[in-house]
Amino acid sequence: MSRNEIKDFQEIPNVGKATKKDFILLGINEPFELVGRDPYQMYSDLCKLTSQRYDPCVIDVFISAVRYMEGGAAKKWWEFTSERKNHMGNQ
To answer: I want to staple 15 with a disulfide (CB 3.0 to 4.6 A). Which of 19, 21, 27, 29 is the partner?
Structure first.
């Protein structure tokens, strides 16, 4: 299946019902809309919209989904943890 053919967020590796709801809350209604998104900004926006602070591993899931939709390999979400920590200064 081509990435353009993905119609449901849950077809993306690491994306379950909760992440699908997060994307929709963020105004992202189709998987292809993840292309070019900033996962760190998505996380920040989610926290602001809900007035909650989520576990930073949510960022890892966002990174994995964005990268996958941009053509990257399917990887486990925790394979992006070190990237997040480097980007955010070990948060």
So the answer is: 19
Q: How far is it, in rounded angstroms, from Cα 46 to Cα 59?
A: 10
Whole-angstrom Cα distance, residue 91 to residue 83?
Answer: 11
Reported pTM: 0.94
Locate 13 and state its tokens.
Answer: 């590796």
pLDDT digits (tens, 9 = 90+) for 33-85: 999 999 999 999 999 999 999 999 999 999 999 999 999 999 999 999 999 99
Are residues 35 and 69 in contact, defined by beta-carbon separation less than 8 angstroms? yes
